[in-house]
Write a structure and sequence with these properties.
212 residues; 11 helices; 68% helix; globular
């Protein structure tokens, strides 16, 4: 690799400070994030207060929020039903996502201490799918291992019962609904952050910033 270019720290800081982003563009980015993630009330309030003119469909947001809320409350059957009401092809065409939702239903059984229901559900619904698709078997085995622990929160698999796990599933489902409607799955801020992270890695491959 060629020798890195060195830029004085003061020059780099001045260059960063000279960048100015118009307020209306920042407002548009924030509103786009709220709409994409399904925060209708916050989006409507922010649009009113900022004067941003970005259009969005409140009813469409409500539909996605119903699904997200059901997932976050552990009501997986309700979430699946709500998605199917929007478009049955969303889950029919994404069997991996449907399997992860059903895995979450299994986790909810285990969390509630419903061992018999968990065993029956895993054997009758999940196992046949995992057997025909070995790539899913490890995930099923990991969830089933939760049955070996009295305290799920302190087990090595505690991440499976953490709210962040539900959030991940809810976000993936939200993206699938957006995609089915022909909408962009990631907010512009999310896309910008991914681009920024990639650019920073590439930048540090070729440039170093001196302390002075």
């Amino acid at each position: 690799m060629a020798e890195k270019l060195t830029i004085p720290g003061d020059d780099w800081r001045k260059a960063l400070e000279s960048v100015r982003i118009p307020k209306d563009q920042l407002n548009s980015l924030v509103l786009n994030y709220l709409v994409t993630e399904g925060y209708r009330q916050a989006a409507e309030q922010f649009r009113h207060e900022s004067g941003c003119t970005l259009h969005f469909d409140p009813e469409e947001i409500d539909q996605r929020m119903r699904v997200r809320r059901a997932v976050m409350e552990g009501e997986i059957d309700e979430a699946i039903s709500a998605v199917n009401e929007l478009d049955a092809q969303i889950l029919d065409g994404n069997q991996g996502l449907l399997f992860r939702l059903r895995l979450q239903k299994l986790i909810e059984y285990i969390r509630q201490g419903a061992v018999q229901e968990a065993l029956a559900f895993s054997q009758e619904v999940l196992a046949p799918v995992a057997v025909s698709n070995p790539s899913l078997l490890q995930a099923l085995e990991e969830v089933m291992a939760l049955l070996a622990f009295e305290s799920l929160d302190s087990s090595p698999l505690a991440h499976l019962v953490h709210s962040s796990h539900l959030q991940t599933i809810a976000s993936e489902l939200n993206s699938a609904i957006l995609a089915s409607s022909g909408l962009v799955q990631d907010s512009k801020i999310t896309a910008l952050m991914k681009t920024l992270a990639w650019s920073q890695r590439r930048f540090h491959d070729y440039v170093s910033i001196s302390p002075n």
